[in-house]
Amino acid sequence: MTVNGSGLLDLVCGPAGPLPETYQRYRLVAHLGSGGQADVYRAVRLCGGVSSAPLTVKVFRVDPRRPVVDELRSWDKGDAVLMDLNNRGVQAICRRADGFYGPPPHRPGEPPDVGDAVPYQVYDYLHGVNLREYVCDRAGLAPGARRLNAVDALATLAGVLRALHHPTEPGATPVLHMDVKPSNVMVLATGEVKLIDFTGARYWRPEEITQIAYTPESGGPEAFGGASQVGPAYDVHGFGAVAYFLVTGDYPRESGQQRAAGEESPPAWSVLRRHPALERRPALRDHLHEILADRPGDRPSTHELPAWVERLTELVHQAGIPDAGVDWGEPETARVVGRARPRPPVAGTETEAFQRIEKLERELVELRAALGTPDELRARDEIRGRATAAANGFTPGPGATRLASDGRAGATRLAPDGRSGALEGPTGEQRRVAPDRPVSAAPVSPAGAAPTAVSPAAMAMSPGSAAGSPGSAAGSPAGPGGAAAASPASAHIQGRAAVPPPKRVDPSQSVLAPAQEAAPWPQRPREEPGTWKRGWELSGIGAFFAFICWGIWAASARGRLAGPLMAFGLVLLVAAGVFAVVRLLGRVVLVNRLGRVRRGARGAHTITGAFLIVAGIAYLQQTPWVMQVYRWVTGTS
User: Where are the residues of the annotated region Disordered (predicted)?
Assistant: First the structure.
């Protein structure tokens, strides 16, 4: 039986704990996929022989090119961010259910590897497929199929990024997802989308961003500039990559090595793709390239994404782009108001098939848990046979189960030849692996294998196992199947912390580009010369209005013009100061803080023009005959 091209699994995993059943807390039933840092499985949680609803278990892999302690700290940062976002109530993201360190996945009834513990994360299982699979499988092109609404999907992602970058909770720290791309967007059967994979997510603080997740096809080039250059615009670039994929069915960037001969040497990052469908539609191409600009300051801000999506929808309708299998019509959230009838699932999600498969998987897990593996059955039959022989007066052979005579709690181990071995207690070298302690890649080998459950009847019939005697079965904890549980000592993992020296990694060949080795990036965007002149007509209109009003006031004064001229010059000087102060504030906020590039000075000219208009009105208020006309027109005394 296969699921999504993968055969059903029979693996268990769990945290390192004092109870033997914790090693088998989760049963992995299907492999969902693998990434650069982890393997992902569908699983169920076992408790007292009862299996839960499906869950997603992510098993992280340690990169041998980086120190183990750095890898574990990196995983912990992403885990902390996801827990915080779940507590904040951020919608349309994956939900974290559990997290722990434990031995690698292993078959039931077999001892787990005694090497380093690996990190695990457990999430709610999402019924659906990721956006990359949905578009590549062309599920929405089937006749009569219900399609994913692209406008709804982009609006949802824009809302998620706004909640991450601009949290409303007092004192909440902004968060960067760091790896927004089509394969990290899940399409659910209901037509909703959710953002997943927060492994690389970080709080937006320099001390938190020590490595940067970079996917060449969808990542922004500022990843090569170090942590100081990465900000909300990095996630906005990923958002643009998702929009580009929905429009064209392709990723927006391709390797710079594909540039034509004779052009400049390609940069370390990937360059924008020249898509043939977009080259024939310049307006749509320029709009998509705006959000994918190499410079972070040239991209729209997170708050501007809804307006950008609205404009994108208009351009897609006007351009007549080839159908990629998504719906660019009116958002479904606006169409289903007042509709009580449930809608069919989105094509390609196969919700009913998944539910039938998950039901079979749960039944298979419960059946295996009840019967045990073939090795467990053979061991059980052997112990049951020896117990029957002892009850009939036969002396047990040398392979019979023995209890420790020093009264310490022990663990029954099977000898290499399959016979039951002696019980041994914990040694002074055994240590428990704490979640915040890294372990060595070359741990000390234990004295024996992992525990195996022993029948209480066999323990009771063995010599020296009378109730109340030291180490008797009556004092041992019971496992989930009623068998005597193994010792907590066997649940400990042996190891010694050893951090190798840091190794240099080529950022152009690694998905994770270390910030400290990145190429320099300009500290702040440069403005084009003469940008302060753009928008001068606004302040010019205000100056002209103020001059006319001043002229009316000066003519009515019937005196010398020296005083009025000095007064008008002072007004112009103050207006110049207002312009300079507004430009300075814009540079501090927009350029230095937000990394935006100012292409003009319309804002500063608008404020300056408004000031001059107010000054002109003040001149008119000081002109007696103008005020008399105003009162006569308005009927006020």
Answer: 388-532
* Beta pairing class for 326-327 and 148-149: parallel
The three state secondary structure string of 229-255 is HCCHHHHHHHHHHHHHHHHHCCCCEEC
Q: Which of 419, 425, 385 is nearest to 401 (CA)?
A: 419
Q: Model-level pTM?
A: 0.58
Taking the CA of residue 613 as centre, how many other CA atoms within 13 Å lie in the half-sphere pointing to its CB?
11
Provide the angle, in degrees to the nearest 10, between the axes of the packed helices 536-557 and 602-621: 10
Which distant-in-sequence residues (6+ apart) come within 8 Å of 235 by Cβ?
Answer: 161, 164, 165, 176, 177, 178, 180, 302
**Do 29 and 1 fall into the same domain?**
yes
Q: How far apart are CA 405 and CA 126, in angstroms?
A: 52
Instruction: Kindly report, residue by residue over 185-197, the tens digit of the pLDDT.
Output: 999 988 899 999 9
- Cα separation of 326 and 290, whole Å? 22
Q: How many CB atoms lie within 10 A of CB 461?
A: 21
Q: Which domain holds residue 355?
A: 1-127+351-372
The per-residue pLDDT for range 265-289, each reduced to its tens digit, is 677 788 999 999 899 999 999 999 9
Residue 76 within any structural domain of the chain: yes
- Low-confidence stretches of the chain (pLDDT < 70) are 1-8, 114, 256-265, 332-343, 350-529, 558-559, 593, 595-597, 637
How buried is 480 (Cβ within 10 angstroms: 0-12 exposed, 13-18 middle, 19+ buried)?
A: middle
Q: φ, ψ for residue 296 (rounded to 5)?
A: -60, -35
Q: 3-class SS at 97?
A: strand
